Amino acid sequence: MKISAWLSYSLQALWIAALAALFLFAASNTTRLADSERKIQANALRDPQSSNPATAYVEILLPPPALPQLSAGYMGIAPSMHLIRILAARPLSNIDPIEHPARRRFGRVDLNFAFLLALPVAILPLCFLVYRNSLASGAVAKLKEGRVSLFDFCIESIFLPLGVFLGLLLLTTLGALYTNGLRIASNEALARLSLWALIVGVYLLVWFLLFVWCLLRQPTFAGAALSYSAWCVLILLGLPLTLHTIESTLVPPHARLAVVLERRQLIIDVRNADHAQFDRFLQSRGAPAFDWSQPLAPSDLSTLTNLLIEDRLAPRIATFEASVKSLDQFAQAASWLSPLELTQSAIDDLAGTGLSRYSRFRTASLAYFDQWQRYMLPFLAKRRPLDFDALRAAPKFQFKEEDSGWVLGMAAARALYLFAFAALLIHGIRRQLKSILPKKANAAR
User: Fold this and answer.
1) pLDDT digits (tens, 9 = 90+) for 134-192
2) Beta carbons of 399 and 364 less than 8 angstroms apart
3) N or C: which end of the chain has fewer CB within 10 A?
């Protein structure tokens, strides 16, 4: 008996240590991604470089997220910096739509992954330990015989062990976040962190209630574990992948292959373009016609040729960008159909690494590219270098952050949505208990 108890305590200690190590590693991994973003911010060239309007460039960046330690989100997946110059293609129009929601990661071990995917699985051994201790102490037999109230049973046999587990989890998480640089410097950051804790807590409560519901509907713990595992596969993998498949079917993404093939053909067609075609392009953009009386430098000719190609590709690029925007909107709407994606979106938005914020950055990047091109083309057409005043007057990239009230309001709405799932499970558990417990225990409840 002593050996069995010692083995049980040892397994509990190992399980807790494994969870603590997972959260420490996950928090550290999330912070490493945030540090890479900070390095990009520190080394960016925010002022225009070069006096040649054909090669002048500037780097625009997505500002640092509010609480990057909470979730990696789209950090490291979608580009947070773009090189802007008139010779370059439009931002994001010459690459695969890597921000396509169907490519959202499931395997990156960040803090978001640890809470949303690892803990629902880790609930199984926790529930087994609570279940085993309840049987060994005779609490379950007393509850069935009506010698103890349901309230006392829940407090002594369920909530106390869960409280110890959640306390250790909270201390580990807060310690990992503080060690990795999380500081609360404003009321907004405190509100974001509080809502994050609330959403994660309700999310884990839903999973625990789901297991209790499965346990009450099955005659054995093994049957309940099998039923719970099936729900895990369905909710964590099946439902998100099904939604992504539906998204790709209803709003098919446009890959870069068609754009690349058309660009290659246009390179051949535009190679021998006459002066009138270049002039019509410049005048359509508000720039004067080119002075062809003077020899044209090879770099200027190359720039004009590329600009003409991009102008011919404009309808295809517009279709591509509209596809990406539609995918984003569809993904945000479909997230309300999946508890996992709903919670994931809420945490990402609170951390400042979510899809909606990144979509705003992409839209602002495209608008800034058009503004930059309109400013530089007249200098190119007139063959005027950019002096100090012209460089200083060049357009500056402005990114308007999401309204914090809207972000907090959406997080609160998602928390209420998760509370609705919890309330539904509590109702199902109450109905199961009424059919299992004797009337005396029901009355004592």
Assistant:
1) 776 676 666 666 676 666 667 667 777 777 777 777 777 777 777 777 778 788 888 99
2) yes
3) N
Whose tokens are 């039923």? That residue is 227
Write down how long the chain is: 445
Residue that has been written with the tokens 């049973």 in this structure = 153
The answer to whether the CB of 444 falls within 8 A of the CB of 146 is yes
DSSP string covering 319-358, please?
HHHHHHHHHHHHHHHHGGG-HHHHHHHHHHHHHT-SHHHH
351 CB-contact burial (10 Å; exposed 0-12 / middle 13-18 / buried 19+): buried
- The backbone region for 199, taken as left when phi is positive above 0, alpha when psi lies in -120 to 50, beta otherwise, is alpha
171 Cβ contact partners less than 8 Å away, ≥ 6 residues apart: none
Task: Please return the burial class of 247, using the count of CB atoms within 10 Å of its CB with bins 0-12, 13-18 and 19+.
Answer: buried
Q: How far is residue 264's CA from residue 273's CA, in Å, rounded to a whole number?
A: 15
CB 102 within 8 A of CB 252: no
| Averaged pLDDT for residues 345-365 | 89
Two structure tokens written together for 250: 């209803």
User: In sequence order, what DSSP letters do the residues of 245-311 get, joined into one string?
Assistant: HHHHHHS----SHHHHHHHHHHHHHHTT--HHHHHHHHHHTTPPPP-TTSPPPHHHHHHHHHHHHHH
Report residue 84 as tokens.
């802007």
